[in-house]
Specification:
- The structure is a single chain.
- The chain is mainly α and 262 residues long.
- It has 3 domains: 47 residues, no CATH class; 152 residues, AhpD-like (Up-down Bundle), CATH 1.20.1290; 39 residues, no CATH class.
- Helix 4 packs parallel to helix 6 and helix 11 packs antiparallel against helix 12.
Length: 262
């Protein structure tokens, strides 16, 4: 019996990302690996022209953090570093995940990232990327939150918050936005794509996915880019979460070329 192998395009993409690596699963599960590699490293990538390779890998890493896939994350981080994702960008992906996936989940990924970076000869710690202080993080966070989400939307969240929940809005502005979105190393539009990828991968966060579809549009990421991100995530997060996120894209940024139903 002939052992199934990925097609030429998938094999070339795999070699570029993982030079010289032969998966043990290609030996024990050759059929699955052959059609998964064709799907993940060729078929879906034909539909991601609006997404640079480094950005694609960064959003895939973000999604892997959200779903808790430490082993796959380690492998893909090595690939990302191979094609030009910088150590600072790698660390910033992990830091950006903290307010969305929670430190309890991100903790293992921080250690995994440190291990992979050290294996690649990177000296830690890296240069700091924070731009705020304890005195400025709340105001700076609120400013960037309004830039991303919109003045009216943020003002409405504060105005509609019950008195006993106002502190959650304040924490969101100071911590999520002030501590994270104000950092250098990754620009705001890319951070929004990372956040979108994480929320889509988490599942059960449909209102937040819709909110960050709108936020992505606000910072210049188009419907086409969001669809490209989800297409690239599909092999790793599955159809249910991908389709739910696509529904959020359609609800917030409807297609302009719907088929004629006549």
């Amino acid at each position: 019996m002939t052992t199934p192998k990925p097609n030429d395009a998938a094999a070339a993409a795999h070699e570029r990302l993982f030079p010289g690596h032969v998966s043990t699963l290609a030996v024990t599960d050759p059929e699955l690996i052959a059609y998964f590699d064709d799907f993940a490293f060729d078929e879906t990538l034909r539909h991601t022209a609006d997404l640079p390779e480094r950005t694609r890998l960064m959003t895939q890493l973000a999604a892997m953090i959200a779903i808790g896939a430490v082993a796959e994350y380690r492998v893909m981080l090595g690939a990302a570093l191979t094609v030009g994702v910088t150590p600072v960008q790698a660390k910033e992906i992990v830091y950006q995940a903290v307010p969305y996936a929670g430190m309890a989940r991100v903790f293992d990924f921080l250690h995994a990232t440190n291990t992979v970076l050290t294996e690649h000869g990177v000296e830690l710690p890296l240069d700091g990327q924070s731009t705020t202080t304890p005195a400025t993080r709340a105001a700076d966070g609120l400013a960037v939150q309004k830039k991303i989400v919109g003045d009216q939307a943020v003002d409405a969240m504060y105005a509609n918050a019950p008195a006993d929940l106002r502190h959650i809005q304040e924490l969101l502005s100071a911590n999520c936005f002030g501590d994270h979105y104000t950092r250098t190393g990754i620009d705001v539009p890319t951070r929004e794509l990372l956040t979108f990828a994480m929320l889509a991968a988490l599942g059960g966060a449909d209102p937040q996915v819709r909110g960050h579809v709108a936020a992505n549009l606000n910072v210049g990421n188009s419907r086409a880019v969001l669809i490209a991100v989800l297409t690239a995530l599909l092999p790793f997060i599955g159809y249910p979460r991908t389709l739910n996120a696509l529904a959020a894209v359609n609800d917030t940024a409807p297609a302009t070329d719907k088929k004629d139903k006549s």
